[in-house]
């Protein structure tokens, strides 16, 4: 049908053109060709937009898994050579230990060398409440409640004293930072040290945990009510009228349209493409070798652990 | 010691961007600054060439570039981009111009979408750096005449006309002379030319 319609319209158009041309020729002295040229040009014009082509690069998805491979966006601290050296160092470190994919809100177990501990190692389990820093200075903070006392440990991701990093539960939360757990009830940041790792089947997207925590009454460490947090349920209970008024006064609705503020916080697509092109191959190789090793382990002969 | 924000992707601008924004003196603070820049960006998209203070021009230029690059990347069927365009363009018919005129104009280009040219300062009064901010491919005559041998440049047109006039006057003079003095002067001159040839031949 579509073809038929298209053909018929083109015929009608052609006939009309012929008719008009015949009539007009009697009146005007314009040459016939002047009518046809612009139509042909429009068809041939190739629309090549580099911006769109660059944004389609599939490697860009790596930025969520390995955010520390992107340099600090502040141009005062940029140095292309140092960044490149850091990237090679990071890859070398990743060859030594398995640094798994994890996000803020995941529950991790980290074992570090500790000369004062029994057995010379120290293991800590907790929820990741913050990821910070770029390059070799990347760090993350784990939080747990031990003996009714909140404990936070900040680890460097590429610290050579780290023996192993294990993900016990891989998930995300509703917010980018979970610093409000410090003012939340202790049950929300209590995790047993003998937790078993939960294994997700391959290829499933990382689940988002929609849990909303309850805050303790004030005083708080920060003004949480001004931060538009998704993962807090009872924030309105603890506010006075004064706080609500000030929250309204402090709102910055234009901020999400501040295009240059966003630009200064991120690394542009073109720069990211260069970085991921440099790193992608080696990261893939590392993943493959890890998979092979883990398969070997699962099908290996079990050793007797008696005596 | 910050990690790059990975929640949003932006395409790289083809202009120099300062590490920090300029505050642009304003009693209303950051909101007033953004309002000022909205007016300027709207004016730039509307008139395609505007003259203003250098600092404000440079700030507005960055926002205009970002707006156009977002429009090119996402097109007009992307809700957040449409919202952004709606925020930045105070006159709503300019949203149509952005997506239907400017996006096709700049899709295939490798250059920046705007140009910033320093304008001469005021001779008297406050010394503020002035600038001309314009969209590339605007319909106005070019401000920078790099090619002085351009035939269509006004100075060259005038010079050509003057030359033509001079030649014409000379020809007229010669023609008048021919009419007045007759053949005698011409014969003399031809004889004079012929004379020196003879000794060279012999």
Would you write up a description of this structure?
The complex is a heterodimer of chains A (307) and B (202). Chain A has 307 residues and is α+β, with helices and mostly antiparallel strands. Chain A is built from 8 helices and 5 strands. Chain A has a 5-stranded antiparallel sheet with strand order 4-3-2-1-5, with no helix packed on it. In chain A, strand 1 (107-113) and strand 2 (121-132) form a beta hairpin. In chain A, helix 5 (80-96) runs parallel beside helix 8 (269-299). Chain A is globular and about 65 Å long. With 202 residues, chain B is mainly alpha-helical. Chain B has 2 domains: 3-135, 50s Ribosomal Protein L17, Chain: A, CATH 3.90.1030.10; 148-190. Chain B has a 3-stranded antiparallel sheet with strand order 1-3-2, with helices on one face. Chain B is elongated. The N and C termini of chain B lie far apart (97 Å). At the A-B interface, helix 3, helix 7 and helix 8 of A face helix 1, helix 2 and helix 3 of B. Chain B: Belongs to the bacterial ribosomal protein bL17 family.
For the biggest β-sheet of chain B, the strand order reads 1-3-2
CATH class of the largest domain in chain B: Alpha Beta
Q: Strand order, biggest sheet of chain A?
A: 4-3-2-1-5
- What share of residues are in beta strands of chain A? 5-15%
Strand content of chain B: 5-15%
User: What general outline of chain A do the C-alpha atoms trace?
Assistant: globular
Which SSEs are present, and which pair or pack?
The complex is a heterodimer of chains A (307) and B (202).
Chain A: H1 2-27, H2 33-44, H3 50-55, H4 62-65, H5 80-96, E1 107-113, E2 121-132, E3 139-146, E4 149-156, E5 162-169, H6 241-250, H7 259-265, H8 269-299
Antiparallel strand pairs in A: 1-2, 1-5, 2-3, 3-4
Helix pairs in contact in A: 5-8
Chain B: H1 30-47, E1 49-53, H2 54-74, H3 79-88, H4 93-106, E2 114-119, E3 130-135, H5 154-181, H6 183-201
Antiparallel strand pairs in B: 1-3, 2-3
Helix pairs in contact in B: 1-2, 2-3, 2-4
